[in-house]
Structures are given as structure tokens and as C-alpha cells.
Design a protein that fits this description.
It is built from no helices and 6 strands. By secondary structure, it is mainly β. It has one domain: SH3 type barrels, CATH 2.30.30. Strands 2-1-6 form a 3-stranded antiparallel sheet, with no helix packed on it. A 3-stranded antiparallel sheet has the order 3-4-5, with no helix packed on it. Strand 3 and strand 4 form a beta hairpin.
Length: 59
Amino acid sequence: MARYTINYLTGDTETVEADGVKYDDEARDYTFYTGSEAVAFAPVDNVRSIHRHNEPVTG
């Protein structure tokens, strides 16, 4: 599992722990997932950047 920091255009930040992230073209958002379950969504119109941290997240 990885840790992602989402930087929003509003200046807010959010940290999400997930296996990965995919861009959903239809929903126009970034979907963060663990296994096959969506754990967070970030609307593309408000995202400035997404940073994946290199250190693994453990139990």
C-alpha cells in the first residue's frame, strides 16, 4: 500500500492510503483504490497535483 498526498487548487491537502490511483474519464475524477474497493475520489477540476510517497505503509 502507498501513501498519496493530494494538493487541491483551494490550497487544501489530503493524504490517502491506497494500493493505487486511476483516472476515471467518465466521472472525471481520480479514484484511489485498495484491492477492488474505491477508498477515495478527487475531482479532476480541483486537483493541482498528486504525489505518491516512496515509503511503504505498513500495518
